[in-house]
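Entry for the shared binder. Reason: the reviewer on the internal report wants the predicted structure included alongside the sequence.
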Amino acid sequence: MHDKLQPLPGALFAMPDLHVVELAGRDATTFAQAQFINDLNGLQPGHWQWSGWLTPKGRTVALFAVASWSDDRIWLLLPDLDPSGLAEALRRFVFRSKVAVTVRDDLVVGGAFAKPERAERNRFVEHDGVAEFDLGTPEMPRLLRVGCPAPAVDDAALQRWRMFDLEHGLPRLGPDQSGQWTPQQLSLERIRGFSVKKGCYPGQEIVARTHFLGKAKRGLALLESDRAIAPGAEVTGDARAVGTVVASAGQDGRHLSLAVMPLDREATPLSVGDSPVGERPLREGLAR
């Protein structure tokens, strides 16, 4: 086995919409445990999990991967949203905790549709300053490399990456959808993205009440159309509103959207505006 992660000829492409926010200091893990929706107590160094941050009313501000380097160093791999805005918001809750919240603009992020060399499932590996993460499935391998030399820009590959996320039920929340939805409405249980058993965190009471009282009425549905659909668009069925699009992506005439829809609903033809949409089953495989 080589000491360095080997190059992926022609495969690695730039991921400009994914940023690294670092929590560093004696209280890094304690701070993250108190703020984020998943339980870090079982997360060992060298491993990662999906998580997020909520408003006090239980609405999802941001979704990200939490990677533990050690008790005093954690990375947040944040897609789509402004990392400076998230870092500044988190700093308001530091108070006397010994933790620094920093946007790691020095770290270049690249992705590839290739089998990771060393990372596997939720275990990430660092060699020669480059961290490798497994973001794929056995049927469709994908990897991230953080801290790599600047890769080429490939808009088609980037759009394909986003479509993969949506197909597997990973919401890509842009600024207009931040703070709109509860974890249950985003079906984050599918990717093991939140805990109902850990201690307090912002919005925890609402998340726990919804879970234990069985009051989750809506969740994600995957829709396919032949034209682009903007997040925030209304999904209609039988001439009435039945859902809202939260994320979308597409290429080559195929467009996918994730929409928050009633869990218990009749099968009726769906449309967005004057465009018909078809519902597709969500794939498994991104749960960590």
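Summary line for the report: The chain has a mean pLDDT of 94.
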